[in-house]
């Protein structure tokens, strides 16, 4: 996924291709289908499969960071999306979580790494990384593969302090642990 509704990929001859879509929605829908195709073409899904839909901006999420997330979860059925089993989209409350705290399924912990504020990602999570053989009574059958679309709305970095201009600055932004931001206000990455 690239800015301005572009996607790039390599074919099996290692040739690089770019596609420009007419809208962000068309680009996201295509990316979702690519992720589902990857899942359906793998003999056994043993780890989290993810596809960025929107890249977002700023620092990538690391363990210990606190996030506020909007999400929708579907059951993966008949090689595609089944019914929605959970969502907080169109609700007042975002899900708050601290990455690495173990409060959400293992597949989320893995699939959220590297995401950025404003980023959206599609996750396909095998049963072993989700609710396993027990499932969730009345919502997720045992041994279910799950699909989530997640959007990071807010990020609070582990080591955050306030700069002289009142903006939050992470100690990961620069090699020096100074609380004062770079003069241009942007991090090196």
TrEMBL record:
Enzyme class, broadest EC rank: isomerase
Segments of skewed composition (Polar residues): 164-173
Segments passing through the bilayer: none
Occurrences of domain PPIase FKBP-type (ranges): 64-156
Broad class of where this protein is predominantly found: other
Keywords: Acetylation, Actin-binding, Cell projection, Coiled coil, Cytoplasm, Endocytosis, Endosome, Isomerase, Phosphoprotein, Rotamase, Transport
GO MF, one annotated term: actin binding
A Pfam family the protein falls into: FKBP_C
Chain positions covered by the region annotation Disordered: 162-189
Location within or outside the cell: Cell projection, Axon; Cytoplasm; Early endosome
Cellular-component GO terms for this entry: early endosome; growth cone
Catalytic activity: [protein]-peptidylproline (omega=180) = [protein]-peptidylproline (omega=0)
Family membership noted in the UniProt record: Belongs to the FKBP-type PPIase family.
Protein name, entry field: peptidylprolyl isomerase
Gene source species: Fregata magnificens
């Amino acid at each position: 996924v690239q800015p301005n509704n572009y996607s790039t990929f390599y074919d099996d001859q290692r040739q690089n291709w770019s596609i420009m879509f007419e809208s962000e929605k068309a680009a996201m829908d295509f990316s979702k289908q690519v992720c589902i195709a990857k899942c359906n073409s793998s003999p056994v899904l043993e780890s989290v499969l993810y596809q960025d839909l929107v890249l977002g901006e700023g620092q990538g999420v690391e363990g210990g960071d606190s996030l506020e997330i909007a999400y929708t979860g579907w059951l993966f059925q008949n090689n595609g999306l089944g019914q929605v089993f959970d969502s907080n989209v169109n609700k007042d409350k975002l899900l708050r979580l601290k990455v690495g705290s173990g409060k959400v399924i293992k597949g989320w912990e893995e699939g959220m790494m590297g995401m950025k504020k404003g980023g959206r990602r599609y996750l396909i999570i095998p049963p072993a990384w989700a609710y396993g053989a027990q499932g969730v009574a009345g919502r997720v059958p045992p041994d279910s593969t799950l699909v989530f679309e997640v959007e990071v709305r807010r990020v609070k970095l582990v080591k955050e302090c306030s700069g002289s201009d009142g903006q939050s600055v992470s100690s990961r932004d620069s090699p020096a642990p100074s609380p004062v931001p770079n003069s241009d206000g942007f991090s090196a990455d």
